[in-house]
Amino acid sequence: MRSSADPVRALLRRHRLLCQRAVDPLEIAAALEADGLTDRAAARFRHRDVFSLAEELYARAPRVEFESEAELGGRGRAEPGWARVPQLLPPLLPGALCAVAVAAWEPGAGALRGTVAAACAALAVATAGLVLALGRLSTRRAAALGGAGLAACAPVGFALWGEALLGAMLPGADADAGTEAGGGAEPDAVVALGLALAVAPAAWCGRWFAARARRRLAASRGLREFAAGARRLLAAALARYAAGLAAALLLARLLAPTGSVTLAATAALGLLLFAAALLAAHGRTRAAATGLAAAGAAEFLTLATASAAWLPGCAALGRPVTALAGEHGPAAVPLLACGLAALGLLGHAARVLARASAHGPEQPDQRDRPDQPPRPGAGSAHRPGAL
Amino acid sequence: MRVALLTEGGYPYAHGQSAAWCDRLLRGLAGHEFEVCALSRGRQQAAGPRLAPPPNLVRLRTAPLWGPPPALRGRGGGRAGRGGRCTGRLGRRIAECFGELAGSLCGGRAQADRFATGLYGLAELAARHGGAGLSGWLRGEQAVRVLEAACRAPGAPRVVHAARVPDLLAVADRLERALRPLSLDDWYGWGRDGEGDGDDDRDGGDGLARAALCHAVGGGLAALPGLLARRFFGTPLLVTEYGVGLREHYLRHLAPVPGEPEAAPHGGEYEGAHALAPTVAGAPVRALLAAFQVRLAREAYARAALITPGNAQARSWQERCGAERARLRTVYPGMDAGPYRAVAEQGRDAGPRMVWVGRIEPARDLTGLLLAHRTVRNAEPTARLLIVGTGRPDARYLARCRALAARLFPEGVAVTFTEVGTDEAPTLADAYAAGSVAVLSSVVEGFPVPLVEAMFCARATVSTDVGAVCEVIGGTGLVVPPRDPRALAGACLALLRDPARRARLGAAARARALELFTVERNVAAFGGIYLELCLERGPSPAERSADEGVPFARPAEARLRPGPPAPSTPSWARPAGAEPIAGRPEAERPEAQRPEAVRPGSERPGPPATAEAMSAPPETPAPPDVPETTGAPVPPAAVGAAGRRERP
What we know:
With 387 residues, chain A is mostly helical.
């Protein structure tokens, strides 16, 4: 065995990759031992033990570029465009269902059309929730998402019914008109259709943002660099969504002429919902729920003050609402509430979604994934260390 | 006395590392109270079956090293808790300590003090302000930022410097899991006013604060609670390692070799089995995680009162990681010798037949054995070889070996392949009885279980020089170099032709195995070590004030629980029909026989009968080639595994 002048060289050649990629001499020592090399065998290489042999191997092996190794795991190949088409379709469902519902609805028509319209509307709401919430999340977080979904009911409900209700409740309004508006319970079809159509751009932009952010994460070298890139991405996603939302609202407006303030209020609500969905998709359900609930609370507070103003001696309570609504119409209330909440949530998102930890390679639902099924032999007695 | 047994992915879970050994230890040391603190490694393990608790197990605590942190449970759980919940002063102090810890991982050598500063600093903060704050902070962005700063610091190694954001995230995630034992408030029983400051106040709470001794099974994360207990309560720490955790960590994370299907040769065995998950990670992640494991192991070895490796290889790793020789004491795994007694006592020689027992896989080098057998047959035409498989064989390798055997021995009778449980070998003992020479041909081996079994059966053995074979066999068998069929054949022939030598070697092997590798010996060794560590520590302040001025008022044995009394009447004097006392249920035992003196509070120092057995002096003279010896019980099935490193 002592024939060669440099016995270690042969060993180095045999374990070339191991030695190149090792981060520590102990790693080489562990692998050599696992290969059956003992201290007595190390003596053949003129070393006292496996550890000193491993140190020599570690010192002599050429180091590979660590950069290239980062690519080793590699990101999966991009899916071809046609493969993504099925994923793109579901977000269109709520808009289509809502359009059917609006078409089927006609006051005073038969019970069948009413039923169809109601069913379609309910389905539209359900699919919208599913599309927005489950785009990237598992059912594991359904409870947390349920809270945000409930919180979303308040501003959406106000957008559909609240305007007419508020108009009827404003001090000085015609009492008969009030009962008619409140009791009729007919939602604003344009608003409903606009929101339902806006689900599609929201889902697409949310997914686009998540995918781009993950890709950028994999490529970035520093947290600050990533944060700057993520903010730009968020702005881009927001711009895309805003364009989509505008298109959806204009499309819905073809149905019936609608005031520009109402449209603006709907747009603000759309932005708020988008911000909340983005935050929820990245694990910030609590913030999303808070923003939605705040907008809803503000709106219902105006309703409460407006109705309280009818009480004798409390007319002062209704004055701010009357001033606001009198100037710009009742839609100014949701515009203000949703707009402020959306701004708050978007500001929060710009801070939170720029963090790398919000885009971690392991999403919370993958973190505690169940273990893989046991491999053959894994449970047998002859496991390393199964002593 | 109360012993806290700390395990990681082990004891109460039936499919855990060292679980059978721990179970036997607990049942064997009935005089001690045990408190088990177990970290589980995965959902599957945590939900899986558990071993039945023995009566002396007073408390069992478990915590997951997977999923959301237990400290944050019930607070929205998931990532909602992420992100700087503890801002302000606490956040800054956590950041400082974590910065020290991260800096020690990214620095070169001689960073042990920084690691310790960071680790204990974090533990102190968790103790004072509750573990939830620390857990939440570690999951937040701040931890990633601190880690990044440490990686980019001047002087950091190049590999760490190259870390990208995903690497940082992965490391932060793994570190959060690894540091979970710090934030398990209920494990330690922190006093009402935060941590004890290193004094001996063990009566202040429960949890580890009340334990007289922490026994960590493994030097990795399992030792972390023990380190904290040592730091804050002065509890001595005993570390037992049969397979070195650090080495297993390296093998789990072996660098991926592209184009080689067995890139992660140990992945199959370990997948989903560890807190520091076995995903294929880039070099920076591997470097940082390995640095954490090394620093943790070094800290554990440096602070442990005693370290008990299971064999010389584990010992060399521990010495390499800074364990002092004076505090190392090898305690061999023990096995049940009972099933093999009959074979050994029959003493029948099976003629020129060799037997090989083990799991059929490439690491056992059966092809080399078959080639050697061909040489043996050429010289000794009546020689036969029996190959007995245990466990699940590697089917492809088995087929290859069968084909080779058919080619080498066309006559067919020379080699028999069988399995335990078939007619040819109903039990393992029968398998050994069928041969007069036991052969071990492995090229890779940890603690060689089949060798010990053969020694129990008083068989002469021929084995290859791998793993712990030399220290197990001593001078009682022949050892040849691995991967050398000719040498193997020569040694086998020498024994096959010399029945007297066979018998001599076999008898010596059995004597050696009974001396070193029995369950009883292992349990007794740990019983002795417990008492020894307890003595070294001395009485707690409360006890000291009670026994003021009375030297030796409280021997270590006084802390034992009263155990079953030894029979005080000889068997011939017992009334006819009385059962032997050992067979009676606990309740029927005469109360009067229980020695009063063993009650912990009592003043009388008389050691109980059981304490004698338990403190059996471990310094029985051992064969000269092994300095300190004791044995650890191992399920016959599981031992093999002790430190086995296999590359399928």
